[in-house]
Design brief:
419 residues, alpha+beta, N Utilization Substance Protein A, Chain:P, domain 4, OB fold (Dihydrolipoamide Acetyltransferase, E2P), GMP Synthetase, Chain A, domain 3, 5 domains, five-stranded antiparallel β-sheet, 15 strands
Length: 419
């Protein structure tokens, strides 16, 4: 029986080593296990009987316990309950000087229980320890959803990575929560944000993410004190993980430039974040409640000519010069996709029609317009079709020696070139 007793003590010692377990919870579970043991041993149904007849003394610091049985001495023929009473003849076997009405207290030793009972107690205790550990991990990380955690890569699988935190708890980093260019080996340190926590088959499942916009938000809080202190507010973040991100920021203090504060001197603050995100390109945008201006800022570095907003279907037509279109759309359409997400408008980009058409020299119209008419236009500095069309008919009549009818015919010919 000594081996079983030692096993039980060892199990108890494991229990007292658990971290982040408050003493009342620990005491309650241990007492509950021993109460169940006494119920079976003495065939007792009610907890009240256990509490009134037994003292369970648990020494958490030493990892040991004692159980004492308290009974009243009664005459042999008056014995009614072996739980609360002990016969005089039995009491005298403990000590000769016991008399009727006195209290007898004797220790209940583990050796008094059968081997199977001791193993059952140990198994019960181990089960309770494991349940407590699982609940503790679940509750710990349930309160940390949206917070950054750091762990060590323990195992790399095809669909996910197993990460251990500093207490040895298991965290899962799925493939779809990894940045496409992420590459980890066993022993590497990895950071992510707690995305979700759930109980699966009675085991806590803690999923961390590196692709979540919340991860980028927390990184900015770590790198930019003004955000952490609440002087700069992050209004919205959108990401195409590993490629590009846009973050809209606002400051209620006019003395603070929110974009400048986030980027830092020569990019000092944002560089660390970019490295963590595998060189993800980050656009920091000054938030505004003016939708036209916000759309314009969101499409940087492209320069916008004009924006036409349709509030009913939350869409906007954005016009710009031809050489700006590719900048606005971005590689693979990422820039305009993120701009649409951060502004809340479905954006369509159009080339500015008037600007995109090439101008035509007046000499090109020599088969339709007389040479002397072309010469008249050249005298006033109009060498191209567009330079003529920019002026009104009245202006041309005043500045040239041409008849109104000739001017109108010429304008008609020039306009037909651009229709």
């Amino acid at each position: 029986m000594k081996i079983e007793h030692q096993n039980l003590i060892d199990t108890f010692s494991e229990f007292k080593e658990l971290k982040n377990i408050n003493r009342p919870t620990m005491m309650h579970i241990l007492e509950d296990v021993f109460r169940s043991m006494l119920k079976r041993k003495f065939n007792i149904e009610e907890d009240e009987e256990i509490q009134s007849s037994f003292d369970i003394i648990i020494n958490i610091d030493k990892g040991d316990f004692e159980i004492w049985h308290n009974r009243e001495v009664v005459a042999d023929d008056e014995l009614e309950s072996t739980t609360h009473q002990i016969s005089l003849s039995e009491a005298k076997k403990i000590a000769d000087d016991y008399e009727i009405g006195e209290d007898v207290t004797n220790e209940v030793k583990l050796e008094d229980f059968g081997r199977r009972e001791v193993l059952s107690i140990r198994q019960n205790l181990i089960s309770r320890i494991m349940d407590l550990e699982k609940n503790n991990v679940y509750n710990k990380y349930k309160d940390q959803i949206g917070e950054i955690v750091t762990g060590e890569v323990y195992q790399v699988w095809k669909k996910e990575i197993l990460v251990l935190d500093d207490e040895g708890n298991e965290l899962i980093l799925p493939k779809n929560e990894q940045i496409p260019s992420d590459y980890f080996r066993k022993g590497d340190s990895v950071r992510g944000v707690v995305a979700r926590v759930e109980m699966k088959n009675n085991n806590p499942l803690v999923v961390i993410s590196r692709t979540s916009p919340v991860f980028l938000e927390r990184l900015f809080e770590l790198e930019v004190p003004e955000i952490f202190d609440g002087l700069i507010i992050i209004k919205k973040i959108v990401r195409s993980p590993g490629e590009k991100a846009k973050i809209a920021v606002e400051s209620y203090d006019e003395r603070i430039d929110p974009v400048g504060a986030c980027v830092g001197m020569k990019g000092s603050r944002i560089h660390g974040i970019v490295r963590e995100l595998r060189n993800e390109n980050i656009d920091v945008i000054n938030f505004t409640s003016n939708p036209q201006l916000f759309i314009q800022r969101s499409l940087n570095p492209a320069h916008i000519t004009s924006v036409v907003i349709n509030e009913e279907d939350k869409s906007a037509d954005v016009f710009m010069q031809p050489d700006q279109v590719s900048l606005a759309i971005g590689k693979g359409g990422v820039n305009i996709k993120l701009a649409s997400q951060i502004t809340g408008y479905n954006l369509d980009v159009y080339r500015d029609n008037i600007e995109e058409e090439e101008d035509v020299n007046l000499e090109e119209f020599s088969d339709e317009i007389d040479a002397w008419v072309i010469d008249e236009f050249k005298k006033i500095g109009c060498d191209t079709a567009k330079s003529v069309l920019k002026l009104t008919t009245d202006d041309l009549i005043k500045r040239t020696d041409l008849e109104e009818e000739t001017i109108e015919d010429t304008i008609k010919i020039l306009k037909s070139e651009f229709e």
